[in-house]
Write a structure and sequence with these properties.
This protein is α/β, with parallel strands linked by helices. The protein has 2 domains: 205 residues, FAD/NAD(P)-binding domain; 114 residues, no CATH class. Helix content is 24%, strand content 18%. The protein is elongated.
């Protein structure tokens, strides 16, 4: 795995959404990456039933325990008390599922040196928005820098508290949580995201890939500044705008191979000014554009054909879905799982 730097993964809040309704997705979203796999809902469900446990096991081996299932979804509060949905979440977050907290007294821990997070306000939000009996306790950590943020809590041991409660909500980043303690979800920059990035980045090579070399309809090597990395098969998992997998130019382009970039099944190169107006009125629309693949995750050229038989694409570089929405982690996990498996079999 070659990676220049962390991408959007390092910013995630702490709750992973996998998929909402597979049947509805396949019927109503023809350009969605999961629809383009040409698998029925039963086969997709079977693949998710295999991929998710494999992911959880791999993350736990790398020091990050994650819990949950793609078939069930909970609601968890962030540092402002706002509920966010999630299928998978760190074990340190799972105790904070809002329905499970109903009927329990929750103590919300604040740190007086941290200005961007107010425990009293969060406790009030838990009361008003979720009908949870919550109160705040402020602690002081003298060694924090002036104007500290939540990220300055990362790696510090959880402070001792005066009050007691069956459930204790901490801002994210602390280690050694007491019994009943759990972490709230985060805003960017995110301690949850950084833990996930560290876990999946173990063994990665830091390299800025500037070119993919090819011959005879196959990619042969990835060229970095000082080294050439050769392989039998390659997976393009370069991310969207944050990761650098797509460049926000006019039109959006894929920089390594000049692959086609599509929105709603059409090349953005021929979208004209209408797409610009749509994105101006609703900026989130720009994230729907991306690389499109065939049923084996081979990325397509602008003409719709496959140029490289040993190249696969996975994750946020794919277009046709909102990676801040209900499939935000489902698409990267499932396409990454399948692309890796198919790439490993390439040439056999």
């Amino acid at each position: 795995m070659l990676a220049r730097a962390p991408g959007a993964t390092a910013l995630y809040s702490g709750a992973m959404e996998i998929v909402d309704d597979l049947e509805a997705l396949l019927k109503t979203e023809p350009h969605h990456p999961l629809t383009r796999l040409r698998l029925d809902s039963l086969r997709l469900a079977t693949e998710l039933d295999t991929a998710i446990p494999a992911l959880l096991l791999a993350l736990e081996k790398d020091g990050l325990k994650v819990e949950g299932s793609w078939r069930t979804r909970g609601r968890f509060a962030d540092i402002h008390g706002v509920a966010r949905p999630g299928n998978l979440m760190p074990a340190t977050v799972s105790l904070g599922e809002l329905r499970a907290l109903s009927g329990h007294r929750v103590l919300v821990v604040g740190v007086s040196e941290v200005g961007e997070y107010d425990a009293t306000s969060t406790a009030q939000a838990l009361k008003e928005l979720h009908h949870i009996e919550a109160e705040a306790e402020e602690v002081s950590i003298k060694e924090l820098p002036v104007g500290a943020s939540v990220t300055d809590l990362y790696g510090r041991r959880a402070p001792s508290l005066k009050a007691r409660a069956p459930a204790i909500a901490f801002p994210p980043g602390f280690t050694g949580l007491p019994d009943g303690g759990f972490e709230l979800l985060s805003a960017a920059p995110s301690p949850h995201g950084w833990r996930l990035q560290q876990a999946i980045g173990l063994g990665a090579v830091s390299a800025d890939v500037t070119e993919l070399q090819s011959a005879g309809g196959r990619v042969t090597a990835a060229q970095a500044a000082d080294k050439t990395y050769r392989g039998d098969a390659f997976v393009l998992a370069t991310g969207h705008h944050i990761g650098g997998g797509l460049l926000k130019e006019n039109p959006v382009r894929e920089p390594l191979l000049g692959l086609g970039v599509f929105r709603d099944g059409r090349s953005v190169a021929h979208a004209g000014t209408r797409l610009q107006h749509i994105e101006y009125l609703e900026p989130a629309q720009q994230f729907l554009a991306g690389v499109m693949t065939d049923e084996r995750l081979h990325p397509l050229e602008e003409s719709g054909g496959v140029r490289f038989e040993n190249l696969y694409a996975a994750g946020a570089v794919l277009g046709g879905f909102d990676y801040a929405g209900p499939c935000g982690f489902g698409v990267p996990i499932l396409t990454g799982w399948l692309a890796g498996r198919w790439a490993a079999r390439d040439g056999r």
